[in-house]
Amino acid sequence: MTTLDLQMNQIKHMMDIGNRSYEILILNKNYLRYIPFEKIPGSVKHLSLDQNKLKRLEIDVPMVNLQTLSAEMNDIQFIEFAVYLNALHTLNVRKNNVSNLEFLDSIPQLKHLDISFNDFETLNRLPATLETLKASFCNISMTASRMPSSLVELHLNANFLKNGSLPLFWGTNIRYIHLGENSLTEFPKRLPDSVEYLYLQNNKITEIPDKLPSNLKVLNLGMNHLRKLPSKTNVHLQTLILSGNHLTQDLSKPISWSAYTIAESNWNTEKYHVAQKKIKKCWKRYLLKIRSRHIYRSRRIYDELMMIALHPDHILQTDAFSPEWFRKSQTIATS
User: Fold this and answer.
1) pLDDT tens digits, residue range 110-169?
2) Would you place residue 325 in the very low, low, confident or very high pLDDT band (cuts 50, 70, 90)?
3) What is the dihedral sign for C-alpha 251, 252, 255, 261?
């Protein structure tokens, strides 16, 4: 393959190389703000535009051979493909400011898509041929109800997804699902048996269902709100991660449905028991102080009323009496 590597050359304007026959063109780490694709050879199969200053990505000429396109770490806000890119199977536009996915309609054969670190609320318009989707850190609050049936790997970490905004259909071939750092309160439902690796760390899930995907091998539920575990499930996991939950049961014994378990920093450890005892002790002391404060306040009111009863002419001047004198006055009054 003929390659033209122009990265790190401080290029500000694209030169016309449309009459050349390069297959790989690398323009990373320059100062390009716009790419006129009529100046790009039609023979290019792999085009890399990472770390430039692109604001727009527009393709309005046939790029019949283009298979992979990468424009990572730019400032792209608008993408438009006026022609169908039938050969394009890999697209990477992570770390930009893309807010609309309409351009996906022009890539009917797309297999691998990375749109992480952009800004859009709804994940839709996904090509039916998609196999890998990476859309982490995108502020997504709603996904498409149906994922492509060809999807194998899905990354939706660090979004704003709740249980009601998850897909109803995950596909029949999906093996990897990453849903960590969202707002899930329940274990995802309707997961297909094809799932092998499921990552749900840093959510608010409170329990694990008895029935899990039959091919599941790795389950990460670290940093959730789990308080108990099922005694048995329908699978035998290779790895189960439960660190940072609220589990109080004895986790020193092996879990029957997992070959290897990581369960650090739960509420069953010695330091949590010590902390729990300290909290209970401080709480009892606090309640005692409240009761003592009420008793002291009641006693003070009683003493002030007694002072007024013994000396009505000194009303509103009770603070002027010394405790020693008042005790003597009480003794005289009761005798």
Assistant:
1) 999 999 999 999 999 999 999 999 999 999 999 999 999 999 999 999 999 999 999 999
2) very low
3) positive
Whether 1 has a pLDDT exceeding 90, the answer reads no
pLDDT at 288: 75
Residues 6+ apart with CB under 8 A from 2: 21, 22, 23, 24
- The CATH architecture one would assign to domain 143-148+160-268 is Alpha-Beta Horseshoe (3.80)
The 10 Å Cβ neighbour count of residue 38 is 11
CA dihedral (183, 185, 186, 189) positive or negative: negative
Residue 163, classed as helix, strand or coil, is helix
Mention every residue, 6+ apart, whose C-beta is less than 8 A from residue 10: 30, 31
| CB hemisphere CA count around 196 (13 angstroms) | 6
Q: What is the pTM of this model?
A: 0.81
- The residues spanned by each domain of the chain are 1-120, 143-148+160-268, 277-334
Residue 208 token pair: 């694990």
What does the CA dihedral 271, 275, 277, 281 come to, rounded to 10 degrees? 160
Model confidence band, residue 293 (pLDDT cutoffs 50, 70, 90) = confident
Residue with tokens 């991660």: 241
| Of the candidates 153, 144, 149, 145, the residue with the CA atom closest to the CA atom of residue 120 | 144
Ramachandran class of 105: left when φ > 0, alpha when ψ lies in -120 to 50, beta otherwise: alpha
DSSP for 42-103, please give it. Answer: TT-SEEE--SS--SEEEE-S--TT--EEE--SS---EEEESS--TT--EEE--SS-----GG
Q: Is 324 helix (H, G, I), strand (E, B) or coil?
A: helix
Q: Do domains 1-120 and 143-148+160-268 have the same CATH topology?
A: yes
CATH no. for 1-120: 3.80.10.10
